[in-house]
Amino acid sequence: MPRLAVLVSGRGSNFDALRAAIAAGRLHAEIALLASNRADAPALVRARAADIATFASDSRGSGDRAAWDRAFMAAVAAAQPDLIVLAGFMRRLDATAVAPWLGRMLNIHPSLLPKYPGLDTHQRVLAAGDAEHGASVHFVTAELDGGPVLAQARMPVLPGDTPADLAARLLPLEHQLLVAAVAAVASGRCRMQGTAILCGGQILHAPLQLQDDASLA
């Protein structure tokens, strides 16, 4: 059974989605660790209640960023995960901390990458007048939100939408997308090779898309 380490910074709704999918038999994996860079992250409380191992180290005021990142990832590595899932982890990790996990670390980001890496994606979509918004799951590299994109979920931007409207409507799609993407990698269906992604042994030329039945195609 593939072992997951899930990294969060806050409430952890994507962590909850992964847990629910595992309990329902839709994701064949186990969560070996929930780790956070915020000691007060609400997700930690729920993980402990579910008897999931946790690790927290507050990154605020940590001084040497690269040293903190390496120490944090060493603690994550101690759980011996097969795959690390950044599920609302709001910190850019140093390249030296990411390097050992290339191809084994996924991140979910609330935009249709390569559009709008970084923060404030909902506001930026509205400011640009985009007709479509969405979320992406990508393999993590040293570049901010720049690794190969595995899968995306899309939705229309409606007249009168606010950033809060977009965030609320996108969140359920994020949950479905992350579960499906993690399942694709954990099962061996998809993997990173160099700067490309292989799915079913074939190079993926465009991100897989979330379907109405929550599958990827």
TrEMBL record:
The keyword Transferase applies. CDD domains: FMT_core_GART. The keyword Transferase applies. Its EC number is 2.1.2.2. N(1)-(5-phospho-beta-D-ribosyl)glycinamide binds at G12, S13, N14. One of its GO terms (molecular function) is phosphoribosylglycinamide formyltransferase activity. Residues 3-182 form the Formyl transferase N-terminal domain. GO terms for biological process: 'de novo' IMP biosynthetic process. One of its GO terms (cellular component) is cytosol. It holds the Pfam family Formyl_trans_N. The record marks D145 as: Raises pKa of active site His. It catalyses: N(1)-(5-phospho-beta-D-ribosyl)glycinamide + (6R)-10-formyltetrahydrofolate = N(2)-formyl-N(1)-(5-phospho-beta-D-ribosyl)glycinamide + (6S)-5,6,7,8-tetrahydrofolate + H(+). Catalyzes the transfer of a formyl group from 10-formyltetrahydrofolate to 5-phospho-ribosyl-glycinamide (GAR), producing 5-phospho-ribosyl-N-formylglycinamide (FGAR) and tetrahydrofolate. NCBIfam families: PurN. This is Phosphoribosylglycinamide formyltransferase. It comes from Metallibacterium scheffleri.
